[in-house]
Design goal:
This protein is α/β, with parallel strands linked by helices and about 220 residues long. Helices cover about 25% and strands about 30% of the residues. Strands 3-2-1-4-5-10-9 form a seven-stranded mixed β-sheet, sandwiched between helices.
């Protein structure tokens, strides 16, 4: 089995109570694409590298058939606890997202989300994840992803692993969370080349009015 999951996240999830609510962009993606479904429970959505479960919680709470996978046993344990508090259910799995097809059958999902995931990998590993998502998506299924953009605070800091990829970034929002790859627009376009109807936007956030972070927001469709 291929491996990409960084054990740094086990330590992070043990030490921190991570985000309680999902990113607004994920909420918008789900709302625009699936809120009009006649039977939400028939819509299967996978939150890949779900962490402690903010995305899974939202997907389950909105009535969809929620799935989550993460390499961290602590993350999955906290996700289960979060769901249990509200009597929600989801199918959860400890596993590595670089091998999604080892855990799920082909054409299993209506949507796969990679929120804050791809840029914690080397570029080839991120592309392998997208290939795996392609396999487990239904024809016409949708993918949602975010990626940190080149030029964001932290690029050039820490230890260079490969081009635009750094580890041990010493300060800012990207410190203490393992490896970071800073994506160019061209890399995003190349990474989603096998998908159709690719939409690439971005948002910009600042921290302490000094550090600047640009996030690519990507949506695409598996061709019919």
């Amino acid at each position: 089995m291929n491996k990409s999951w960084d054990s740094t996240w086990e330590r992070v999830f043990r030490a921190r109570d991570w985000a309680r609510y999902p990113q607004e962009e994920l909420i918008r993606f789900v709302a625009i694409n699936f809120y009009s479904a006649d039977e939400r429970k028939k819509i299967k959505i996978l939150d890949a590298d779900c962490g402690t479960g903010a995305g899974v919680w939202f997907i389950a709470r909105e009535g969809f058939d929620a799935f989550g996978i993460d390499g961290s046993e602590t993350g999955i344990m906290k996700c289960k606890a979060c769901l249990a508090k509200e009597g929600l259910k989801a199918s959860l799995q400890v596993g590595d997202c670089i091998s999604l097809s080892d855990y799920y059958p082909p054409a299993a999902f209506d949507a796969v989300a990679f929120v804050g995931v791809l840029y914690h990998n080397k570029i080839q590993a991120a592309r392998t994840m997208l290939d795996e998502a392609f396999t487990v998506l239904k024809p016409g299924g949708k993918i949602f992803a975010t990626a940190i953009a080149t030029g964001s605070y932290g690029e050039g800091m820490g230890t260079l692993v490969e081009e635009r990829t750094f580890i041990n970034i010493p300060e800012g929002a990207l410190s203490g969370v393992g490896l970071i790859h800073f994506f160019t627009l061209e890399e995003v376009q190349q990474s989603f080349a096998g998908y159709a109807d690719v939409k690439i936007g971005y948002l910009i956030r600042s921290r302490d009015n000094l550090a600047y972070y640009k996030h690519w927001i990507i949506e695409a469709v598996k061709p019919q």
